[in-house]
Amino acid sequence: MPIRSPRGRAAAYRALWSWPLGSPLRLAATAVVVVGLLVLAGFALGGRESAERGIASPTTTTAVRAPSSAGPTALPPVAPLTPTTLPLSAVPPAALQVAANWAAAWVNHPDGVTNEVWVNGLAPFTTSEYVGTLSGVDPANIPASRVTGPARATEVSPRSVDVDVPTDAVTLAITVVETEAGWRVAGYDQA
C-alpha cells in the first residue's frame, strides 16, 4: 500500500522518526522500550549459546584455529635452578683478600670526608654497578672505625663468595663475585 501523504513519503518517515522527540516523556518511553527489546534479545540469544556450551556431546569436536599472524610463543619450561655450593675450604684466597681490602676501605671515613672520596677508596674493590649504589651512602652514618678480625668465608659458590668481616661496631656480610676484572664486592649488609 503506497504512502498517501500531502507531503510525500519523506514526510511520513520524518513524522515517524520525530515522534519520540515530541516531548521528554515520549523520549524516555522510547528509550525504555528500545533498551528492553535489546535486553530481551540478549537473553534470547545468550540463553541458547550458554545452553549449547553447557552440554557437550561426546561426538562434538572443537576446531583449533591457527593464529592469523605470528605472535609471541611460550618459552619452553626451565628446570629450577639450584645453587652450587662448594666446601668452605675451596674459597679463593683472592676473594677473601678483596673482602678484607674492601672492609678496610669501608671503615676508613675520617670526620669530614666526602662521599666522593670515600667511594673512590671503595671503587677498586667494587663492581661498577655497586659503586653507583654506594654513592648514596653518607660516610658519617657508618658506625665502625676499624676492622677487628680476618675475613671469614660463610658460603662458597663457583663464582661468588659470602664473607663475614668483623669490625668494632658490626660484622659486615660481604658478597664477592668473580668478574672479568677479577673478584669484586657486589653487595654488603651489616650482620
Structure explained in plain terms:
The chain has 191 residues and is of the alpha+beta class. It has 2 domains: 9-53; 88-190, Nuclear Transport Factor 2, Chain: A, CATH 3.10.450. Helix content is 37%, strand content 16%. It has 5 helices and 4 strands. The chain has helices spanning 9-18, 24-54, 93-107, 115-122, 128-134; strands at residues 152-156, 160-166, 171-179, 182-190. Strands 1-2-3-4 form a 4-stranded antiparallel β-sheet, with helices on one face. Strand 3 (171-179) and strand 4 (182-190) form a beta hairpin. The longest helix is centred in the N-terminal third of the chain and has 31 residues, at 24-54. The chain is elongated and about 110 Å long. It starts with 8 loop residues before the first helix and ends with a strand. The mean pLDDT is 82.
What's this, in brief?
Residues 54-78 are annotated as: Disordered. The chain crosses the membrane at residues 25-45. This protein has 191 residues and is an alpha+beta fold.
Output the keywords.
about 190 residues; alpha+beta; Nuclear Transport Factor 2, Chain: A; 2 domains; four-stranded antiparallel β-sheet; 5 helices; 4 strands; about 15% strand; transmembrane helix; transmembrane
Question: What is the strand and helix layout of this fold?
Answer:
Layout (H helix, E strand, L loop, with lengths): L8 H10 L5 H31 L38 H15 L7 H8 L5 H7 L17 E5 L3 E7 L4 E9 L2 E9 L1
